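Changelog-adjacent note: as of this version, every example in the card shows the full chain rather than a window. The one below runs 65 residues end to end.
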Amino acid sequence: MGLLRASLVFIIGNFSISLMHPKHINKINEIPIIGNLVGYEIQKLILENKHMTLLIIITLVEFIL
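Full-length structure tokens:
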């Protein structure tokens, strides 16, 4: 893995960790259709499984890069 690719993975991982803060996760309810139907359940699952969420995000980033 090159230095540029490693730094991109670090930056995106750090950014996604900051987005998992409860005040940012509450914005899921503002999504028009999804927020009303399953917004609370999604928030609960993200907060309970932060490690798995971060792993999925980094895996998707690696797949794209």
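Structural remarks: The chain is about 80% helix and 0% strand.
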